[in-house]
């Protein structure tokens, strides 16, 4: 009796989205569930973008993840360069933390100048994220779009309350957008429709389903991603046939168990390695749920996630 | 393989005696087919019909029960591919390895570390539950001694791993009361190992390389009368493990392929020497259908993140996880510290306490029972109204602990502030930020 794997029935495929000017990356293109390579293709492997902040993150980042970047945290361009040269980053995600209205509230033009500097400093695709403050992000990302014309950035998070302004600017200056909705399939679909109505082509939209860290809501993100993939691949939902992006670093490294030092929590083992594993395991889980682009922080977690992607492909 | 009502009806006595509680045999058959009745309710079914019907109604993937000291854990019994389709029922069992040539002192140390490796979270006790005793030199007496030590000094479930039947037998005798799992029956030794499992009533791992060989082996074992079987497809690369786990989950659920209707065992411990990679492989096994996952060592550095992942993957998506309502002191608050309130949805609780702890601001956090609903959902469902919240604040006992009389409410619950002020006339209601990420700045400013 020759056993044959009962095959999944797929009717859809993820549309490819290409981001970046030099060393552009193409994401998406899957014709089966993630890494189900015995029954479909994954022409473009998932990628990892390294996280860079435009302010010194010393106050927020736990020591183990700050350590590798200590020499560059005050200079985002140098930081991005280090990620590319030393750690082989295939993309950079610049987080414009300085613009947070509840923090420094830096003006849009200053942030745009930083984004331009970083974009010029590296020859890999750049993703530029705001702080999820809808009005401020609209202002900041609009300025970034203009300053970085030609760089084919990914701008995000674009939400239902600011998609018009950011979407229009992305369209005008030839960037992609990361469409962010709060862990909900229908809201994700709706925002993609709205962006489509605005004229943003599907080849320029990534789905950001909102990421939850390990032990802190990861399961909601995981399930919604599986449902998005299922709708896209098996239910002909063409508004969801797009690559997904996850902001992993942020969610993982803010959780308690990544912050607790060896003195504070001896029963949890070693803080540095635990944090690396928390980030890598969150990434692994989201990879099998359908992530195409992970924004990650610790070089060791990134190395682990990359080798996993290689081995699964 | 579900039978239709008509197919079941044909096997019933057709006397319509009503003793089953249904007006006719046909009505009873229909109820059986849709899972609304138990076959036992009819006293008159023939033995032959009973056998056929219970075989047909058996779960497609066998739930295999495994003994810990005071508890039984189950692996298998799953019915879906994606957790959101229903839920995953039986969390992956995490196991560590004890080599049979370890010194007594090492064994004791590992067993006592195992007993301590337990973490409380949202009412669940998170822990690894199993040890694999691995025969490294064929010394049956030493192997048995390690198995016995596990029985005596821990509550762990046990897998006995050897390619020598006499070694397995010695271990099984020594650990008899814990009903150890035998690893493994192969094409070469199926009669002997299967026979031992049968004789002692133990679960057994069937190990073969490739689907056809594995199916042949399990068919042979079930033919010997064994039911508690666990599958090792022999895969030792993560890509192949993923494919095999999916194939083995699909076979019984999609194609009614009985030879694969059993849980799996995955062995990241045999896939790499790097503990980080090993844990990462284990995480793929947890996400994708691994029944038992065996690691070399049980180190909390790696186990804790895996336990969190397992909790996430295996929580029931239909029932939100909740925390106990009450007063939670964060960052050592005193009578002058600030007071804030939120819901008892575990996710909300984790995010909010994470931010407050990160802020280092001493805080009394009140957790109101909202039946596990988030702030906005609870508000929309009328479980976080001004009256309700006010009543809770008065009754929960915070007034005895703190002199502060201002209450920070979540930004998304701003709409209740008017009602709340009426309910709590001597309190000042402060509307906090909407996003938890903005809590530290807001709390520091108080
Ligand atoms: C998942 C979900 C559900 C789940 C419930 C999950 C759960 N356990 O709560 C289900 C499907 C059961 C559900 C049901 C309903 N839902 Co609902 N649901 C959601 C959804 C998608 C996410 C909610 C969530 O989990 N948020 C995550 C948690 C962590 O957020 P949170 O508790 O608010 O906490 C954050 C902040 O409030 C803040 N915070 C929390 N506490 C504190 C404390 C302080 C002091 C501070 C400063 C800050 C703070 O920090 C947290 C992180 O930022 C939202 C839409 C959305 N994306 O927001 C709709 C949503 C909340 N639901 C809504 C509604 C109307 C309902 C229903 C009444 C009917 C319906 N339309 O489905 C029912 C009611 C349920 C009932 N039993 O009757 C509406 C509410 C609209 C409104 N404003 O009135 C929403 C906004 C969707 C919408 N746009 O229509 N829902
Ligand atoms: S008890 Fe049995 S025989 Fe009697 S009506 Fe019910 S199914 Fe028919």
TrEMBL record, chain A:
InterPro entries: Ac-CoA_synth_d_su_TIM-brl, ACDS_complex_subunit, Dihydropteroate_synth-like_sf. Transmembrane segments: none annotated. Pfam families: CdhD. Residues 19-299 form the CO dehydrogenase/acetyl-CoA synthase delta subunit TIM barrel domain. This is CO dehydrogenase/acetyl-CoA synthase delta subunit, TIM barrel. It comes from Desulfobacca acetoxidans (strain ATCC 700848 / DSM 11109 / ASRB2). The lineage of its organism: Bacteria, Pseudomonadati, Thermodesulfobacteriota, Desulfobaccia, Desulfobaccales.
From TrEMBL, chain B:
One of its GO terms (molecular function) is iron ion binding. InterPro entries: 4Fe-4S_dom, Ac-CoA_synth_d_su_TIM-brl, ACDS_complex_subunit, AcylCoA_decarb/synth_gsu, Dihydropteroate_synth-like_sf. 5-methoxybenzimidazolylcob(I)amide binds at residues 342, 348, 372-375, 436. One of its GO terms (biological process) is acetyl-CoA catabolic process. Keywords: 4Fe-4S, Cobalt, Iron, Iron-sulfur, Metal-binding. [4Fe-4S] cluster binds at residues 17, 20, 25, 42. Pfam families: CdhD (PF03599), FeS (PF04060). This is CO dehydrogenase/acetyl-CoA synthase delta subunit, TIM barrel. It comes from Desulfobacca acetoxidans (strain ATCC 700848 / DSM 11109 / ASRB2).
